[in-house]
Amino acid sequence: MEILRRLRIEPFIVAILAAVVVAAFLPATDGAATALGWVTTIGIAVLFFLYGARLEPRELRAGLRHWRLHSVVLVATFVAFPLLGLLGQWVLTPVLGASLAAGFLFTTLVPSTVQSSITFVAIARGHVSAAVVSASVSNLLGVFLTPLLVFALMTTDGSVKITWDSVGTIALQLLLPFVLGQIFRDRILPITNKIKRLALFDKTVIVLVVYAAFSEGVAEGIWTMVGVPQLAVLVVACCVLLAVVLGLTELVSRVLGFEERDKRVVQFCGSKKSLATGLPMAAVLFVGQPLGLLVLPLMIFHQIQLIVCAWLAGRYGRAEETPAAPAAS
Fold first, then answer.
1. Cβ(272)–Cβ(117) under 8 Å?
2. Which segments cross the bilayer (predicted)?
3. 167-172 long-range CB contacts below 8 Å, 24 or more apart?
């Protein structure tokens, strides 16, 4: 229960919620909004540059040695999740409206988390090295696959519009910095390794993205569009989505005959959605769209997955520590 208690009061989550509250009462407007837009634009580019620099190429090569395991995680992340998202969007649109339902779909299109996935696999006594590879590969492919999935699935009904200008912005702000990070990785890492609390930069950029998104949402009257009943429905929908994916990943890994350590990798890496990657992507992908509504489902799902998976990982870990009962004579 200790890990659950810590995650519930995670300062990063508190900072995100605080950004929403501050935006509700003190939104950035006029010149401040313009300046904030430039800051977040530069911050997102630097963020993806650092993502590229941190990704160890050897992890990708190592993934080929356990291709069945990583293939299942990728299918769960980029095939099963989006299919469930499409179904959820169809069901939720009449209740939540087009933008929130589209945000629910977007939640299912982003890559898996890295840090929390690995942490939960470790707590559950799973295959940690395989989790590192699966989570890293998911994030790498997500930089390319998530925009493609958004184009393919979210622009067909008119609820989200992406122009060719947006394609150029995505390439310049997400893909190019990421590739440059990989290219200059050997030169950048010695510098970043000397900087203490570099993760604080990542989290600061995400909090600024949240603040900017909800400042824009307040100007558009977001809280007049979302009522308590809609929020309740959205929370239930996120809970159902997580439960279905956790169940599917457990079932598939069992059918494929994975050992217990590998089952935990499939379940925890295949059921996560990354707020750290998803929010900056949304800020680039949905320029001119109701960003606050589109990212709200991801923020809710992220918190739910932390709480539920912390409990589940602790349960698995305690089961592994419990010695088997002696056989009856």
1. yes
2. 12-29, 35-52, 72-92, 98-123, 130-154, 166-184, 205-225, 231-253, 274-300
3. 169/284, 169/287, 170/284, 170/285, 172/45
Whether the per-residue pLDDT at 12 is higher than 70: the answer is no
Average pLDDT over residues 17-23: 82
Do 106 and 278 form a contact (C-beta atoms < 8 A)? yes
For residues 52 and 40, what is the distance between their CA atoms, to the nearest angstrom? 18
Chain segment 145-173, per-residue pLDDT in tens: 888 898 888 876 555 555 555 566 666 76
Nearest Cα to 114, choosing from 130, 82, 138?
138
Q: For the whole model, what pTM was predicted?
A: 0.75
pLDDT 10s digits, 243-292: 999 999 999 999 998 888 888 999 999 998 988 788 888 888 887 777 77
Provide the pLDDT for residue 178: 76
Which residue, 172, 93, 175, is CA-closest to 142? 175
Distance CA 130, CA 269 (A): 10
Domain ranges in the chain are 2-315
Place of tokens 């122009």: 163
- Which listed CATH number (3.10.129.10, 3.30.450.20, 1.20.1530.20, 3.65.10.10) goes with 2-315? 1.20.1530.20
Helix (H) or strand (E) holding 239: helix 228-255
* Pair of tokens at residue 87: 């179904």
Neighbours of 261 (CB within 10 A): 16
Number of H helices, E strands in the chain: 18, 0
Ramachandran angles phi, psi of 224, nearest 5°: -85, -15
